[in-house]
Every structure is written in structure tokens, then in C-alpha cells.
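INPUT
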Amino acid sequence: MVTQITSFGRSGLYDWMMQRVSAVVLSLYTVFIIGYLLLNPDLTYDQWSALFEATWMRIFSLMVLLSIGMHSWIGLWSISTDYIKATGARFFFQSLCGLVMFVYIVWGVQVLWGL
Amino acid sequence: MGLAFLFYAFDLSLESQEGFDQVVNALQTNFLVKFVIWGVVSALMYHFVAGVKHLFMDMGYFEELESGRSAAIANIVIAAVLIVLAGVWIW
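OUTPUT
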């Protein structure tokens, strides 16, 4: 049994499940945002910022931010473990992915709750 | 990759009225911005359709050769339609 330390969860099954859970969250958000933009063609700044001040939307958006992190880590991990055989290169690639994901999550939180 | 652009637009659009106007104006007039956002949305649409297909596959559908192949073709067709619609919407 290979002990995995770079995968998202401790077991492949956990990763498999979280990939699906995050996918559903992300797809709901995608449909919601595109629907919202389509239904509000002449959207105003006040309307748009009010949307993101609503607590439910902030909860949903934070869930999406975390789902982006999980979904992309699991996805890119399976790609990198398939294609990047050199351990050093693979580790560098995964670290880079982790860094970018962390930046996105913090950036998103900053946008929603920033000063 | 595409997320970098989306987060930037997200940040700018919520920062201030000026930022919001900048995003709206760019999306309406700037060819490069339109092209980039179309590319990002297209990639998302394809990924989205393929993802839905995978969820069905997890439930045991599209596992034989014929059903798998037709699902794959449907995936491409649906994604192509969404991509064209996105293009119409953006342009």
C-alpha cells in the first residue's frame, strides 16, 4: 500500500467523494451566477454589491471558494500523478498549484469581507 | 488559469462603482477582454458538461461502448452549443 501524503484526503475514496461534492457546489454556483447575469441585463453596482453583502450569498460564495480549492487540488493531483513521473518536478508542480489555490481563496475572502 | 481573470473581474466589480463600470465597459467594448472571457467560459462550459456526464457515469450510465460513445458525442455537441450561445451573449 503506497502511503500518500500529497493527495487531498487520506483515502482515494475520500478524494473521489469530495471531487463530486465540490463539483455539485460549483455547478450550482455557476448556474446561479450565469442565470443572475442573464436575468439582470442592466445590472447596477448597487444591486451587485448588495447581492454579495447578503449573508446567504457570502456563505454560498465561501463554500464555492473552498470547493474551488478542493476540486482543483484533487483534479490537478490526479493529473500530476498520472503525467509527471519525476518526483521533484511533480512536487514543484503540486506546490505551485497549492500556492495558487491558497492565493485564490484568500483573494476571494478579501473581496467578500475585505476592508 | 481562467480563474485569474475571473477573480480579477470579481474583485474590480465589487471594489467600487468605478471598478464595476470598468468591468462592464471592458466586457462591452474591449475585443481582447471579450475574447479572453469567451475562452474561459467556453472551457468552463465543456468542463461543466463533461462533469455532468461523469456524475451520470458514477450512477452507472454510459458504461457500454455504444452508450459511452453517444454520451461523448452528446457532450461535445451540447458543449459546442453552449459555447456558441456564450459567444452570442458576449458579442
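end of record. Residues 55-83 of chain A form the longest helix (29 residues).
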